[in-house]
Write a structure and sequence with these properties.
The chain has helices spanning 4-36, 46-55, 62-96. The protein is mainly α. Among the domains are: 1-34; 60-93. The longest helix is centred in the C-terminal third of the chain and has 35 residues, at 62-96. This is Poly(3-hydroxyalkanoate) polymerase subunit PhaE. It comes from Nocardioides vastitatis. Residues 91-111 are annotated as: Disordered.
């Protein structure tokens, strides 16, 4: 019988492969649309064009935003994994350690 990790890895591999196939199909469709359709040139007002030129050096590219956010997500997931594993380790150690016996009750004091 395969282990949980083996099953999870296999499902993950299938999921990633499906995502790659979808990515390839979408890229192909996008390329086909770009090759077949002439997008109209929309006139840009001069003020908007100047604003775009002024901000273009200060605003990150969409690809930079995606990379930065995925890197942050990976770091956060790694930190959460490490914390969870440490807590599981501590709870396993606590479960293996015998609990201290409760202190004997003191005899009721005489009235």
């Amino acid at each position: 019988m395969p282990s949980y990790q083996d099953v999870t890895r296999e499902i993950g591999d299938q999921w990633v492969a499906a995502l790659k196939r979808t990515e390839d199909a979408l890229a192909s469709v996008a390329q086909g649309v770009r090759d077949r359709v002439d997008l109209p040139q929309i006139p840009v007002p001069d003020r908007l064009s100047r604003l775009n030129d002024a901000l273009s050096d200060r605003v990150p590219l969409p690809s930079e935003l995606v990379k930065a956010n995925f890197e942050l997500t990976e770091r956060l997931l790694a930190a959460q994994r490490d914390l969870t594993l440490r807590l599981l380790g501590a709870s396993e150690e606590a479960a293996e350690t015998p609990a201290p016996k409760p202190a004997a009750k003191k005899a009721a004091s005489a009235k």
